[in-house]
Amino acid sequence: MAYGREILHGTVQYVRENGPWTVFFEPRSMQDPAPPWLKDWDGDGIITTLYPQFSELIRQTGIPTIDLDDQEPRSGLPTVQSDQLAIGATAAAHLMERGFTRFGYFGYPQFEWSRLRLESFRRAVEAAGFVCEDYEPAHAVSWGHQMPAWEAEIERVARWIDGLPKPLGLMACNDFRGVQALDACRRADVAVPEEVAVIGVDDEILACELAQPSLSSVIPDCRRIGYEAARLLDGVLAGAPPPAATLHVPPLGIAVRQSSDVTAIADPIVADAMRFIREHACRGIRIEDVVGRAGVSRSTLHRRFRASTGGTIHDAIAGMRLDRVKRLLVETDLSLHAVAERVGVAHVEYLIAAFRKSTGATPGAFRRAHRDGASRATRARPQAGGRGPAD
């Protein structure tokens, strides 16, 4: 998974700066048994996640080991891991900044890292005077962190989400749980992000981008985890005493995507209108279409819209189209004519004029500037993803 790969990138960085090391790496899944070569391996040091199926064998080798695990019971070995409490607090702050006052948590109670994230998330929202509801799964999960009977469980999750007060800020313990939450919202016909804003953890980019809508996620600093693990191992091999305390690495921040890129809307009519606009803005809809969906008079919807969002229906339609244009310019090589077609604009000249009025730049200049900026950000900022071993 990307989480483990990013840890390895951090390890590689340390080796480049302080090597030479000869590194033996074998990709493994969390369900795999202990590798047969481990018992007689003559390496100098190990960086790994001490999963139960081979933790005792690693101990028996007597080889200095750095543990990346975040489960109880503690291994007693030098350990580097994500700061789970900081992750929960970061997600809570993100949702509260968007005006949410009702919260839920969708996790895995049998995993300590999930429980710690819940503890911190709940503590943060309760400190602000709010309440957090958490979901109790009916089924256990495997070491693969996948629900073994998700099709049976999803209806229960959908009912849970449907029964919570809205608008709701929902934290999922990781991105794959976040994708399941989005699935449950669709089953319950709950609008994301208008009624429920969802944020995951790990920034598993492919999963987050394939989700509909795309999933916001807390970004763990996995490269620092890998770097610090290599640094600790280097110290132990040089004779330094191992640290007594676990090193907790705080997250980098949040990758904000559509699932939480919203201001909480308490008015259900306006929330539904915003959902309609989000889903249809690029199909050439007009204000009359939104009014027809809302089932109230045009003047009533305008008044409620401005009270809830501070803007007009026209602003919302234009804003959704503009956001789509920006994404297409940065993320694709489509021509301006193709972009205009995909956002429901009949004439590319109108698109150029409207874009320049809103952004102060032509579409071409915007594409060049933001593609260059995205390349620099990718090189400068580590990206992290789902949970996996770093053996």
Shape: globular
Number of helices: 15
User: Can you give the mean pLDDT?
Assistant: 87
The Rg value, from CA coordinates, equals: 24 Å
The CATH topology of the largest domain is Rossmann fold
How many E-type strands?
10
Structural class: alpha/beta
Unreliable spans are 373-391
Strand content is: 5-15%
How would a crystallographer describe the biggest sheet? 6 strands, mixed
Give the domain tally: 2
Fourth CATH level, the homologous superfamily of the largest domain: Response regulator
Going across the biggest sheet, name each strand in turn.
Answer: 5-4-6-7-8-10
The share of residues in helices is 40-55%
Order of helices and strands: HEHEEHEHEHEHEHEHEEHHHHHHH
Distance between the termini: 12 Å
> Which CATH architecture of the largest domain is right?
3-Layer(aba) Sandwich
The top-level CATH class of the largest domain is Alpha Beta
Keywords: DNA-binding, Transcription, Transcription regulation
Pfam family, one: HTH_18
Protein name: DNA-binding transcriptional regulator
GO molecular function: DNA binding
